[in-house]
Amino acid sequence: MMKTNPYLLSILVDDEPGVLSRIAGLFSGRGFNIDSLSVASTAEPNVSRITMVTKCEPQIIEQIKKQLHKLINVITVNDLTDKKYVQRQLALIKVNAQPDKKAEILRIVDIFRCKIVDVGLTHYTIEVSGDMEKHEAIVSLLKPMGIIEIASTGAIAWPGKTGNRAPIDRRTNHEKSHFLRYHPQGRHAGGKYIFSTEDKLKIAKRLDDAGIHYIEGGWPGSNPGAQHFFEEIQHIQLKNAKIAAFGSTRRPDRTCEEDTNIQALIQSQAPVVTIFGKSWDLHVESIMQNTKEENLAMIQDSVSYLISHGREVIYDAEHFFDGYKANPDYAVQTLEAAVEGGAKCLVLCDTNGGSMPCEIETITRAMVEHFKPHGDVIFGIHTHNDCAMAVANSITAVHAGAVMVQGTINGYGERCGNADLTAIIPILSLKMNCDCISSQNLEKLVNLSGFISETANVPPVHSRPFVGKSAFAHKGGVHVSAIMKNPRAYEHMAPELVGNKRRVIVSEQSGKSNIEFKARELGVDLGENGVNGHQIVSSIKDLEDYGYEFDAAEGSLKLIMEKLTDQFKPRFELESFRVVVEKDKERPCYSHAMIKIRVGHTTEITSAEGDGPVSALDNALRKALTTIYPQINTMHLVDFKVRVIDGMDGTAAKVRVLIESRDENGIFSTIGVSEDIIEASWQALADSFQYKLSLDNPDKVISL
User: Fold this and answer.
1) 327 Cα distance to chain centroid
2) Chain segment 292-335, per-residue pLDDT in tens
3) For 168, which DSSP code?
């Protein structure tokens, strides 16, 4: 039998019906199998490339190529058998999209540089391109999520790239000022922080108003919803920020013209493109199954191509610090490839979040020095918070010469989060005197933090530096006495600079100074002899011994102080209430409340249903009060917490109920404590209504 050899053929054809079947018929008619075959579009309109591997006798292959040339719609036939090529496989994997698994799925997609091509209510469809090892690795990671279906082409062949580099392009210049770049919270993680297009547009406008320089709008090549944002943002006039699209370098199996991710970046119409490439040879060779030379060509080609299409390019050197520590020569080569492609802004990324400030300092300074001869190349920093060093590492990099900081508001992001711009901005502006944002914009920081938190549906962190509710809060009596004389004694800066305010907390550690300060803040008159202050301190400590915590419930604190000084003016009085909770077989619990209250000489009796007993009470009380106090409609409950004070008492233990309510002016908290959870809930609920009405109707009270 004549020996057969494998041959790799690349065939350019007109994109017309029937071409593929005619080519396949030529091979089957001669009795030869096609081992693998792939079809891809090209940069030329209406022209496709068919790449195939077949086995046949050496003397027959030339005849086959001649026959192929004679076929209608075949443009050229190239034999790539003796040239460099790589084996690849294309697969579509449909996987369950359970809410608690979404973040992990998107992390896998990012690590392996895949693409989500379809998003359903219950599933994702992921496009995977790569060798069998990569395919098997992804399948093994996705199996626990629940794979619904896999459709695969089998092994196919792609021609390799030569990696020829274009001349250096130096058309874009950056001034040596400090830039802030915001990227979407958890752009890798997804799941936990999910924003609609409308959310993103609102966030973009708020960020622009706060003076952020660059706003990243997402990855149009991997996220179907991102393109909608880029379409809509073009209709919004921004005064400070530039919009950036995020994406990766071209893939190793295609040119920039053929790469759908690169083309999506162009089609986004974003004036700025942030593109990332691999700096760590571990990722290049072990994860991507690529060569280091091809990776360099991918970086340069992608940057050059985007610049040639009029885009400002920010190059993110992914895993740079880990890559530099493992192979410094190659890590630097990746940056040089970006510069040769025309990049003027190189961002060093601590993607794993494991680097220490001393390492960031040394490596960043070395890179700034290395690229000084280029003159117009600037550096940025992108850090993750896996070692709680994201802010420290960002600031250290700026100290070493970086002039762009990438981060997120509140530090939201994958795993342990990203660098928190709410800390970085005031540090740069107030501590390092960097030309960052204006003092007027700096004062918007607290409101911006709260807006992002609310939009993300994530409770604010009160202990967050600079913008947290507790950032300038004082509890101990000695501290409060000192700040009343000179705030510098216990504050590193004036809270008003970032839009925050000083808070004094009343608790078991409070002294007379706390009470006096808090009374002034809440508008409660203690008189001039100070007797009321001492009495309130004693009463507050007794209540906290019972289980109250007034540092988390300033609405109730104000009412308590008014009651203790005979200044409380009740807006309504409870006569009675009854709550019924009914459970019928497998149906959800049913709650119904009936309430009787008195306002002046008027008695109101109402009833209402709710999702639970507290919800039913809330609805019934609103129903009773709305006709007398219509402003009640502007207030709604935003959080409800129940805490067991002493678990040793079992079901007889006292519980603490905290309720947060919001109106058009902000959020306020109230508290209730009792052995009965409904009683404690009523106390907190009633206080929230009394507090709201005391602000809006200071003179309207009931006649007792």
Assistant:
1) 31
2) 999 999 999 999 999 999 999 999 999 999 999 999 999 999 99
3) P
